[in-house]
Amino acid sequence: MTSTATPATESPVTADTSGAVTARYAGTRMPRVEDNRLLTGEGTFVDDVQRPGMLHACFVRSPFAHATIKGIDASAALALPGVRAVFTAADLNGDVVEAWHAVAGKDVADTPRPPLAEGVVKFVGDPVALVVAENRYLAEDAVDLVDVDYEPHPALADFRRSADSGVVVHDEYPDNVAGGLGGMPPDEEVFASAATVVSENVYQQMYVPVPIETRGMVVEWSAASAELTVWASTQTPHELRAFCARLLGLPAQRVRVIMRDTGGGFGQKVVPMREDMCIMLAARKVPAALKWIEDRRENLMSAGQSRHVDGTVRMAFDADGRILAVDIDFLQDVGAYPTPYPVLTTAAIGMFFPGPYRVPKASFNYKTIFSNTAGLHAYRGPWQYETLAREMLLDIGARKMGMDPAELRRINVLRGDEMPYFNPNGMPYDHVAPADTFEQAVKILDHEGFRKSQAEALEQGRYLGLGYSAYIEPTAAAQGYLGHEGCTIRIEPSGTVNVYVNGGSTGNSLETTVVQLTADVLGANVDDVHTIQGDTAVTPYGAGTQGSRSGPMTAGAVNEAGTTLRGQIIALAAHALGVEGSDLELSNSTITSRTDPDKSMTFGDLAFRTHYEPTQFPPGLASQLEATARFVSTAPIHWANATHACTCEVDVDTGHVTLTRYIVSEDVGPMINPNVVEGQIAGGTVQGIGGALLEQLSYDTDGNPLSSTFVDYLLPTATEVPTIEYGHVEIPGPGVGGYKGCGEGGAIGSTPAVINAINDALAPLGVTVTQLPATPAHIVDLIERGSGGQERSDRGIKPRMERTTDSGTQE
């Protein structure tokens, strides 16, 4: 592992009136506090929740991609002993009061999203009815007994064929266009006069997050108290609570959401989906708690889709390789019932397309298209296509100009001394130096050494490749309800410190980082600090885990509450010890006089007096060791950036790709915990590798899913992923501690790095992959087309001067 991170100081935390803190734990590789629980199987996930008399739900799902529901006969299912109810749209949909999501707001027009299919099913897996039974086995059996009479219709399975399909997915959108946007029109004079213009069609397949824990919830309605309790696998417990209250028309204080452990989210669990709505609605109609746990087939078939984009991208360069203009024109598949989050972020593909480069002119245009497939949902960097298309085009352009792709990037990448920098679409970059992460990745790799080895391998008939990918991403964007975060810190009578934050931790180690931050701001021993998250009854409101916001926002909230609490500690301890507050130092959960070290007391001593002997303190000095604060971000965006470098070997006979090295140099500001940062990078990188090589959610021409199990939907494993090497550049961001988000970058940068490495390996054969994924069969097909049908020898194929792309064109 390579790292340039500077270890944090071990100095004690000093209390003073300025609020400055010398970190002791932040910046260290402290073990995760949640690991003992999780690694010993003691975690509590939704399926572990048991309630008295609990009932189980299972959905009747459409086997057709597009059909009219002519009738539903549930009599046979209801006759099965143990079946308690079968709900259809007529039973549930009319109970919806409001169904808007905070990410879009109540006044933003939204696409249709009924809980159960109303009259027409619009994709295979569309929920048609909900069966409730005494156990899951009975519910599964009863689903097969519900007789639904369908009248099938032609389906639109390929969003690229929307215009000539003759199929309308939603009557409200007769052209199947959910929305779109255009930026500045392209400057065609620049493209016409440029020394080099590169244009390519780049298609990214549909693939999905597949969290290890599928979706699920338990909902319990108490009629006596008119209260609803929800145990959920979610990234946003407080927003789930608010959504549930709106959906059912309940006062928010009557809804409690409890989120314990969640086995991954990656964006899929940010907003409540249609099945969640059904369980909430049905829970008030049954006599006991209602549990629904999604199985893997349902998750792959119905939890949504992502990444499915087709576009044409162009770049114009001058004679020295400097970028003159970029243009992107694309379509994004939003399926039948998209959630609002990724539809809103589609514009970011165009806005961010200039990337971390010096680009004078940029233009974009896009449309989002309905299809008879699962609805679009968020997935780790929903705008990732902009990085994929741009970075692939840079490599193609470099080869066309006879340059090394690294040199082309070096000419154009932005430096730190150019900040602040506004990209041509108005995005305000600051507190970043993309050139630094790029140069660090090049150095770790030993670029020139690899090129020498690559040339030697080619002489032996082996095809090695190197791919770079650089990006800049917005983290902790302070927009609307995402721009603030709450925190409560309380010192209990024992001296234990409890910190309450909204939660949403889905493997991103908020439990650990919040403990580190709290220990530092108070001068507490980290073993004395514990965190309570994910219970809306006791934690302050927050927007949860999304948009790489958790690090910067929780750091701000902890600092706000901790600063207030530290002031309380100093005031009370100064009176108890008979010294001035400015003379006190806080370290290791102990308050000590700097001038007289014999005057000292522990947090436990102070807490005991505060809770059990409050009359020792004078009137006007509150006997309180608790603070609640709300942090409101004044920085609109915390920009993070990274460069990924990947090397590979391609077997030109089988098309098999072996990744040989993988390097990530990133800047997420100072790291609260390098282990956590690198874990986030590794997880996202592996997901991007899967998207480049393996993963594909496929449909046939009738809209039938072809990859609804892990037999057909291939995931990367340890055998496909090399050891990931890390480099760290730490440029502080504009917020508290200088922290930036790191949740999405790995998944953004990895796919283009892998594809560029493959294309670099295949460049001597005149072959370029522009349609994903780069499966062995796809690579072999391109090679055979590029070879003009020549016979392959034991040492590969003779190179050609022309370059064959997926579209069949030659240059």
Automatic annotation (TrEMBL):
UniProt-listed SUPFAM superfamilies: CO dehydrogenase molybdoprotein N-domain-like (SSF54665), Molybdenum cofactor-binding domain (SSF56003)
Domain of life where this protein originates: Bacteria
Compositional bias (Basic and acidic residues): 791-805
Cofactor(s) in the UniProt record: Mo-molybdopterin cytosine dinucleotide
Keywords on record: Molybdenum, Oxidoreductase
Pfam family, one: MoCoBD_2
GO molecular function per UniProt: iron ion binding; oxidoreductase activity
Chain segments carrying region Disordered: 784-811
Domain Aldehyde oxidase/xanthine dehydrogenase a/b hammerhead: 40-154
InterPro entries: Ald_Oxase/Xan_DH_a/b, Ald_Oxase/Xan_DH_a/b_sf, Ald_Oxase/xanthine_DH-like, AldOxase/xan_DH_MoCoBD1, AldOxase/xan_DH_MoCoBD2, AldOxase/xan_DH_Mopterin-bd_sf
Gene3D superfamilies per UniProt: Aldehyde oxidase/xanthine dehydrogenase, a/b hammerhead, Aldehyde oxidase/xanthine dehydrogenase, molybdopterin binding domain
Statement: the UniProt record of this protein carries the keyword Oxidoreductase: yes
Protein name listed in UniProt: Xanthine dehydrogenase
Organism, scientific name: Mycolicibacterium sediminis
